[in-house]
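User: Okay, second chain of the day. Same drill as before: sequence in, structure tokens out.
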Amino acid sequence: MSKLKLIIEREFIAKVRNKSFIVMTFLSPLIMVGMGFLVYFLMKKNNEKVKEIVYIDNSGLFSKEDFKDSKTVHYLDFTSKGIEDTKKKVEQGNYYGALIIPKQDSLELLAKSIEFYSKDSPGMSVMNALENKIETKIRNQKLNDFGIDINKINASRIQSDIKMYNFSGEESSKLINGLKIGVGAIAGYFLMMFVMIYGTSVMRSVIEEKTSRIIEVIVSSVKPFQLMLGKIIGNASAGLLQFFIWGILIFILGTLLTSLLGINMAEMQTANLSAEQLETAKNVAGGDKMQVLIQEVLRLPL
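Assistant: Same drill. Structure tokens below.
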């Protein structure tokens, strides 16, 4: 046992004193935190920029009410200017893009013939918003053609909220399955990285000792099983220490940067969420539901 302890200490100290280990221990958290804040600022900058989209409605189906301005997108009606003139103005000016709605004999053809022109590739969020507007308008028009009252359809929509309990009477959360998937995915990723990085380190250590033929001297006094076990435990201990330091440094750096730059963490976490997802998050964030969610987290299998 004393020989195994000496091997573990030797491998641990050799790994910790390695220059690459020291550099990566302190550099990796800086890179991770820096990348996170860089993505946040780029997204925030993109969301703050007002986009002007011009549209031509030759179908006569849409109105200004269908293209309401938002905080980041403004719509301009260029129907009277014509398609070619509008394309030139968009190409030469600072407009985000041009939406061309042609005149068609049927709503099905109209849905497949709408075009969008822009100098650069448009963002997915902008295109999704435009497609939702168009699909909603065409669907409502189709319902009107069928003689179906849209107001009655909207009034008939009722959301149900099924409460979940186990057989002991404790309430559970609907998010627990997604939480389990997320925890499993993160744990699997870290396990894979741990095996790849520190498994390679053990292999490199064995190759070095075999190349220098020092392993013949070591094996003469230590069993091969003890030698390999000591290398694995020593490198694994160094890896766990590195992960622990990463967690502390990321938390400290994140806290300092958010306080110094005045960033709201709730805003940062919901920057990519849609309106429906934000509404769901608000509902889950209620006092009772949050307490249930915390209980589910504590009951996760370890």
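The longest strand covers residues 51-57.

User: Thanks, on to the next one.
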